[in-house]
Amino acid sequence: MNKVYASAREAVADIPAGATILAGGFGLCGIPENSIRALCELGVSDLTVVSNNCGVDDFGLGLLLRGRQIRKMVSSYVGENKEFERQYLSGELEVELVPQGTLAERLRAGGAGIPAFYTPTGVGTVISEGGLPLRYNADGLVQKFSEKKEVRSFDGRDYVLERAITGDFALIKAWKGDRFGNLIYRHTAMNFNPMMATAARVTIAEVEELVEVGQLDPNQIHTPGIYVHRIFQGVGYEKRIERRTTRPAG
Description:
Elements: H1 8-12, E1 20-23, H2 33-42, E2 47-50, H3 62-66, E3 70-75, H4 82-89, E4 94-97, H5 100-112, E5 116-119, H6 126-129, E6 133-136, E7 142-145, E8 151-154, E9 157-163, E10 167-178, E11 183-184, H7 193-198, E12 200-211, E13 230-233
Parallel strand pairs: 1-2, 1-10, 2-3, 3-4, 10-12, 12-13
Antiparallel strand pairs: 5-9, 6-7, 8-9, 10-11
């Protein structure tokens, strides 16, 4: 029942090349910084990563991208990473863009054992009709397009069929956790971390504060320990944002 690992490196040491990783957080908030750095140091490659975004050039998942360790990204928002854009347009990276709410629900469905669901989001666009560039050739021509999805009408409204998402490993970040893996999130870390914790074969949680069993109020626990396989106390967390804008004087 003691799921504690001594370090991030120890917790992620058996993640193999070619694995599908679910990485929690929103922007640069609530992301598994320590686990990402450990994967970067270990040099694990050919990864498929599912995450709301891909960090920035020098932080978060951007570190794995910079090390050419990601083969495919499944994301909603990728606008703050120049290296991401370069790799995508040069044919080095496959990208599946998913509406943000749909991405969250695909993960939640995966954790709930629901293979697919219908949603109105994306009907009549390239999301449902296909033709979205997934991968380019080095010469700039599209090598692979997204496929057309099933659309059905319910009560006079069209809905597109979306498949659930599951992963080999989930890398998540929480505020507090105990040795059994019970987790409490704070603020923005509630985005994507809770559903990803349920949707992977192995869930690895890093926490800012690791406490003894019984110290967490059961009524405040967001992710029960039954979903968490490994937990460790992270170090050196940075409070960063993706982009600062300066309002002109006057």
